[in-house]
Amino acid sequence: MTIKLYNSLSKKVEQFKPLKGNEVRMYSCGPTVYNYAHIGNMRAFLFADFLQRVLRTVGKYEMRWVMNITDIDDKTIRDSSIGSKEWKSEMGEQTESAKDNLKKLTSFYEKSFIDDITKLGINPKHFFAMPKATDYIKEMQELILNIIENGYAYIADGSVYFDVNAWRKDDKYGKLYKIDFDNFKSGYRIDSDQYEREQASDFVLWKEFKENEPYWDFEIAGKNYPGRPGWHIECSAMEYVLLELPFDIHTGGVDLKFPHHEDEIAQSKAGYGIEPTAFWCHNEFLEVEKRKMSKSFGNFFTLRDLIKQGLDPIDIRLAMLSAHYASKYNFTFKGVAAAHKARVRVQEYIYYVWELAKGKVSNDFSGKVEELRNKVFAELADDLHTPRALAAMFSFLNDAQSNNLSVNEAQQMLGFLTEMNDIFAAWQISEEKAKPQSAPQDIIDIANERLEAKKNKDFARADALRSKLSELGYLVKDSKDGYELIKN
Ligand code: AMP
Ligand code: ZN
Asked: What is the DSSP secondary-structure string of 367-406?
């Protein structure tokens, strides 16, 4: 089925087709691993995951999906520095080496990131690569040398800057985002990785070494410029190495349009002579009470906060996916509870269809499953319209015809539900009602530990764990195949 996507570059919905064969090469700006990602960040990663799942299942494409890990930038350096309040004992001891400390902090949060996205239903096996910026310093330096050689970068005070004015003489700066050049500060240089549109100016490609910061040697025209890369150059170099240019789709949150993605376009074109990608796809914000969820506003939840409060990550996933990615999504506990109900409704239907499918095969065939599939897939193919796709699904479930499937149709329905799950990753496609759907993984872990203690006849421990579960809001009932968890 042909997929249509909104392209932030053309500002239109366009028909999507891979540039080469049947393979879609997609790059997603990944997390900056200086702390736990909040669920606003997670919206961006869930959007990218959903998009790649729709491309696989509805578009029938092969995927080459890359998501980078930013393990060097202003924030990772700040929080790994000696004396940082953000340092945790689990990261190990800090040493005199700034590079060592950076590695310890970023490895710790990279691991927690992979744990979190896995809980949210993203399958790490779906990534072709998750490159870390510090593994591509050489490639970044090569790109910077190209940009200097082509006349679009200069050295000042030991750092290298992109020369926006020189670039604007030959190409457009502001392809994704309208920049106010009346207030453009010609020759003004900005060192921070993140800045506002009003500060549009020459941005840093390579930052001069500062005392107690990690650095790499960089030889330019026979002279060493020890330092470290700017944030924007990281993505330009990694996508070039892992996907070749131009690739098919680049994703990220809307806040990355400027400066990050705008700068990426300028760097890649100025250095490699090619723009990075055919499609730029951006997700809107997740908000709390009408304000972007952000670490700096202090209005954020991490996934582990929410799990502690008894929410199931897969309900959070479905709640987020239920909104269209290009609309703002207002996060509420009520919204997650509604997603939970919807999820259980489909899960019960899966068990029911499984029963139906066991009957004797007949030739009774009305075409209604195919009709439903076409409808749901057509909505998803239309710029990932999940609200309409889910509405079509629930309208079918609420209709008497959903209960009126022949054995043939029930089997066909199981096939469709499996595909739905390849996309939404929210259900269990099995006839087993065994393990509870609604308990978060932390709770299941405790219940498993209790089962183990019981098997080992350590009843005191088993009782203690039962009390702990009860405190966390779960009753545990022993059953013949283990246990059942019931929410208080
Ligand atoms: P960062 O780790 O800050 O580079 O952000 C990782 C991703 O999260 C980027 O694609 C951001 O655009 C995205 N992001 C940050 N805050 C939000 C939010 N409140 N809602 C949706 N996406 C966000
Ligand atoms: Zn990026």
From this structure: SHHHHHHHHHHHHHHBT--HHHHHHHHHHHHTSGGGG---
